[in-house]
Amino acid sequence: MRPGAARRERGRNARVGLALAGGGPLGAVYEIGALCALQDALPDLRLDALDGYVGVSAGAIVASALANGMTPRQLAAAFIERDGDAADRIDPTVFFHPALGEFAQRLSRLPLLGAQAFWRYAIEGRSALASLETLGRALPVGLFSSEALESRLREVLSRPGRSNHFRELATRLVLVATDLDSGQAVPFGAPGHDQVPVSLAAAASAALPGLFPPVMIDGRAYVDGALKKTLHASVLLDAGIELLFCLNPLVPFEAWSPRRRHSTNGPHAPIPSLVEGGLPVVMSQTFRSLIHSRLELGMKGYERSHPGTDIVLFEPDHHDPQMFLANIFSVSQRVRLAEHAYQSTRRRLRSQRSGLAQRLERHGLMLDHAALDDPGRVLLARPVRPAQDTLRRLEDLLNDLEQVLARAALSPDTALRGAP
């Protein structure tokens, strides 16, 4: 039986897809936590048996595993916990193996490039800056190698019942990378681009320039697929997907806002201006803002080009410091972050359940309200604080009521239909 062949036992008629954006190891942890929450809320929908997946960067790794029949809970055990199946374990440290081969190759060029720079300055009379540009060719194009990640992913996807080959999968899987020399997005897994191993395509999609050298495939250099678009959801929308879940882990952080102004402690406590965090924090905020602005434009475009498709987007709260300042190098931090993503997604589902439930029912899907309202449900074992949970449940109820009233104020018919 081909991997994922038993996919049609769901009690629904709609074609459902999943689009996963990037975000490095942090993004993968968020997506896994959010997917576990979504799976718990929709027990009739198997997220490891959908009609199509598209992944970009870290989302490509998660999508590859889901398309091979790995459940969100299995992904949590493989990527976050250390007590899962060792054969499936993907430690985030595989993202950070030094690119020693790249360093050696560039260093070997330094004597010749140094001589050329000296010649242009001393003999040809060029400026010192123009001569130094020659030495730029000796700089590594990436700090970390993708080889360890590709190798580990190949091992996981080659286990019995899975496949590292697009053509052997029973569902549509597209992993988007960018051709460095042309700047064009390449949908690996689509017809004409499905001869590449899934693990290699995923490594190429995750090769963020500056951090990872380009991944060579058939003589071409490929880098992160997010250079062109954040989600590339049109790959699935054009294929006839009727309900599309989208996950985007990276959002710009609102360090100071009316929501946080009057709080002096807790998750929404004000923090100093981001500029005090130095260059890494400033660059992170800049990158997040750029990709999120593209996402917003893309979502508006999808609504216009595919008005008959329901698109549901999940992403972190813009006021959430835990998703902005998280450290995924620590196992305990990864566990805490995954649990945070799980619980915040459950809160989002509760706070929007009225409108969301009606949209899902159009596709034969029902929210499990008992699971959503269960205060003791967790992704990973942790103590439950009843007082805090009660306050959050009350906030969710008020948010849901606010949305219902807002829809009713706009149009009674719209409120009854539960339109987005």
Describe the structure in brief:
With 420 residues, the chain is α/β, with parallel strands linked by helices. Helix content is 46%, strand content 10%.
Characterise the protein shown here.
With 420 residues, the chain is of the alpha/beta class. Helix content is 46%, strand content 10%. The protein contains 16 helices and 10 strands. Strands 1, 2, 5, 6, 7, 8, 9 and 10 form an 8-stranded mixed sheet that branches. The longest helix is centred in the C-terminal third of the chain and has 28 residues, at 278-305. The protein is globular, with a radius of gyration of 23 Å. The chain starts with 15 loop residues before the first strand and ends with a helix.
- Order of H and E elements: EHEHHEHHEHEEHEEHEHHEHHHHHH
Average pLDDT confidence is 84
Could you name the ranges where pLDDT drops below 50 across 5 or more consecutive residues?
4-11, 260-269, 383-393, 402-420
Span of the ends, CA to CA: 40 Å
Structural class by sheet pairing and helices: alpha/beta
- Specify the number of helices: 16
Percentage of residues assigned to helices: 40-55%
Report the major sheet. 8 strands, mixed
Q: Can you count the beta strands?
A: 10
Spatial shape? globular
Taking all Cα atoms into account, the compactness measure Rg is 23 Å
Strand content: 5-15%
